[in-house]
Amino acid sequence: MHSAVDLSKPEIAEKINDLAVRFKAPVDLHPEDLLFKFFADCTPGVEALDRYFSSGWVDAERITTRVKTLLPEIERPKVLEFAAGFGRVTRHFRRIAPHFELRMSDIHAPAVKFAKDVLDVEGFKSEPRPEFVPIEHSYYDFIFALSFFSHAPDATFADWLCLLYSALRPGGVLLFTTHGETSMKKYEYLAQLYSPRTGFGYGPASDQSDIEGENYGSMSVDFDYTVRQIHKTSAEIISYSSGAWWGHQDEWIVRRAALPPCEVEDQATAVKGQPLADFAKKRPGGPVWNLDTVGNDQRAWENKSFELSLQQELVVSGWAVDDESKRAAGGVDIVIDDTPYAAQVGVSRPDVAGYFGIPDYADSGFVLRLPMGHLAAGPHQLFVRVLSRDRQNYWEMGPYTLIVK
């Protein structure tokens, strides 16, 4: 039992028995559990025990809800708790989510042994640097890392993301938390670390005093910084929630795409098109086309200016045809601030084919999706370029104004 737990005190022994009945989970505490020591230093005695076990239960329930919501079709999801420590959350899954095929990982070998011997959960030892971690690739359905990236330094932040992302099967989900704006408002020392110029701040101190400060400390990050690190994988950002965990840490949820993990420095580069001037000539006039959607505007053809939240994916969609060849357009580029992005073409549009009475227009739809946070706050200029069927010419429409807030 942990040195902070004095079983000779009747109220402590009574609380331990109460917790065992209440949570129906192992109540053993490993002597090297530094997180429990942190709890005990903040709230000594009975309150520390109650907070440690109750918060672990609540967090396990939240993770279980996320898995059910995001992966409803998987009956027995393979779940990894990364940086699990000595089981504050882990110990509760046997009761809350017995259908999970659960594994854990932690940098402390005694924590891995404790999980196996006491909590009946298999695991593997992590390492100070991600390149040495023995993790299965393309294996897990769901990975969560609570309060790990809030301690990872800039030098390895993206590398840790890539490691966990590569361990997901295609379609798998990663949830992690960070010290963001809400954390910095709550804790002055985190705000003092932060630099607006870089988007992050790091200090070598943490509750895990046995880990070298160059590998694990206190990390403050802003929204843009985190998005940039995520884009170094080919991840799709599913959601972002400010201050969602413990009243201050931000929650990020990303999904592994079909693209190979961590081979795309920035997800948006996967849709950047070759500049049209390299192979096509601009033609006067305009094509037969329509702009259906820009962001939340579902009647984009009526407007020249659009607004988009900084925390929102940009979607631009519509249809375009080459009236001379009576075929769908040869391609569509969305040009934002002089950077062309190649939209997905060939999207089914039977309504267009029916309206014009031309069957070959049935695949004239296009759509572009840019990840949340890819565009900085402020105004942006947008043009739409439609290629002729033979891709020798293009028409350009615009400018449109896109205001990101």
Helices and strands in order, then pairings?
Layout: H1 10-23, H2 34-42, H3 46-70, E1 78-82, H4 93-96, E2 101-106, H5 109-117, E3 122-125, E4 140-145, H6 154-166, E5 168-178, H7 181-186, H8 188-193, E6 200-203, E7 218-221, H9 223-230, E8 236-245, E9 249-255, E10 281-282, E11 288-294, E12 305-308, E13 314-322, E14 327-328, E15 331-336, E16 339-342, E17 344-347, H10 350-356, E18 365-370, E19 378-387, E20 393-404
Parallel strand pairs: 1-2, 1-4, 2-3, 4-5, 10-20, 12-20
Antiparallel strand pairs: 5-9, 6-7, 8-9, 11-13, 13-14, 13-18, 15-16, 15-19, 17-18, 19-20
Helix pairs in contact: 1-3, 2-3
What does this entry look like structurally?
- The chain has 2 domains: 10-262, Rossmann fold (3-Layer(aba) Sandwich); 271-404, Immunoglobulin-like (Sandwich).
- 25% of the residues lie in helices and 30% in strands.
- The chain contains 10 helices and 20 strands.
- The chain has helices at 10-23, 34-42, 46-70, 93-96, 109-117, 154-166, 181-186, 188-193, 223-230, 350-356; strands at residues 78-82, 101-106, 122-125, 140-145, 168-178, 200-203, 218-221, 236-245, 249-255, 281-282, 288-294, 305-308, 314-322, 327-328, 331-336, 339-342, 344-347, 365-370, 378-387, 393-404.
- Helix 1 packs parallel to helix 3 (46-70) and helix 2 (34-42) packs across helix 3.
- It is elongated, with a radius of gyration of 26 Å.
- Mean pLDDT is 88; it is low at 263-278.
